[in-house]
Amino acid sequence: GSTGGTTRRLGPDADGLAEAAGLLRAGRLVAFPTETVYGLGADATDPAAVAALYAAKARPRFNPLIAHLPDLDAARREGAFDAEALRLAEAFWPGPLTLVVPCAAGGRVTDLARAGLPSVALRVPAAPLARDLLMRVGRPVAAPSANRSGRVSPTAAAHVLGDLDGRIAAVLDGGTCPVGVESTIVACLDGAPRLLRPGGVPREAIEALLGRALLALPGGGPAPLSPGLLASHYAPRAGVRLDAGEIRPGEAALLFGPVAPPGLARARAQLNLSPAGDLAEAAANLFAHLRRLDASGAATIAVAPIPRSGLGEAIADRLQRAAAPR
Ligand code: TXA
Ligand code: MG
Predict the structure, then answer these.
(1) pTM for the structure as a whole
(2) Residue 266 C-alpha to ligand 2 middle, in angstroms?
(3) How large is the ipTM?
(4) What catalytic reaction does the record list (predicted)?
(5) Is 7 helix (H, G, I), strand (E, B) or coil?
(6) What is the C-alpha separation between 37 and 39, in angstroms, rounded?
(7) Which CATH superfamily is 239-323 part of?
(8) Is CB count within 10 Å lower at the N or C end of the chain?
(9) For residue 225, which atom of ligand 1 is closest to its CA?
(10) Of the options 3.90.870.10, 3.30.980.10, 3.40.605.10, 3.40.50.10860, the CATH number for the domain spanning 8-210
(11) 214 Cβ closer than 6 Å to some ligand 1 atom
């Protein structure tokens, strides 16, 4: 990624797509919208492009990347799918699910993108713009969320530019991302599908399809199976106080549902994730609302209680990371 230059904003039309695909094929970094969040794309088969991606995000190289593909056939050239991985792919792709599977013989995703692991994270996104771009590139595209490492993920092109302007070649502007939280990550490595990260496909939908519960990570935490799942992440500048039953003077309030908690009148700023109490709407608004409340200058963002079922598990996960000690 270049520094000091300007990042081009490409429109969501044939010209913009052709330009974005050409830049990616030339080893440059291009942010693009998926249904979950904006990804920062690099040619996953090109070690130099992947190295530039880690540098632009200031991302530790031990944290592997997701390779994005236009369809299941392309994904099966990169990874070895067992029967359950195949059922999950057929049920939920294209869509907000990432599968971690053993690398396939002859796979092209470079070692650096996998952080040296013998497995690879694969995803076929549903956003039409992303699929069109991936078809044009014709190679796996590594794409972490298009933010600086540890910051709030971007759900609009303006968020990408706020973090990465001048550090990447271009951003393909496709408006806002409808799901709003990253993909669910499931590892199918040892015959026992494991939930590595809750996300846009609810756990309940996956467990219903498989007819069994998803296991947790083995051992005492994410490392080394998913080294990127660090505790502090998605961090706004402000502190984050979870399950707030009341708003303290000067706090910014992140609300959910029709309830107005005591003290709300003294809030420095307030936004509601979903006045109707809808979890899909709340997920779509989560990162943009966190950014706006952070910009209010409040020292603390107080977050109202949010149910943890369905998409609520992914929302709770992101909020816990935002609240984690740094
Ligand atoms: O929705 C999404 O998944 C977005 C969009 C852009 O597609 N991408 C995204 O990427 O969230 P990122 O880099 O923020 O998250 C990738 C996660 C990291 O936690 C990483 O550790 C994990 O995937 N991961 C990647 N490869 C892995 C592997 N081989 N084994 C275990 N975890 C892996
Ligand atoms: Mg991320």
Answers:
(1) 0.95
(2) 33
(3) 0.99
(4) L-threonine + hydrogencarbonate + ATP = L-threonylcarbamoyladenylate + diphosphate + H2O
(5) coil
(6) 6
(7) Threonylcarbamoyl-AMP synthase, C-terminal domain (3.40.50.11030)
(8) C
(9) 31
(10) 3.90.870.10
(11) no
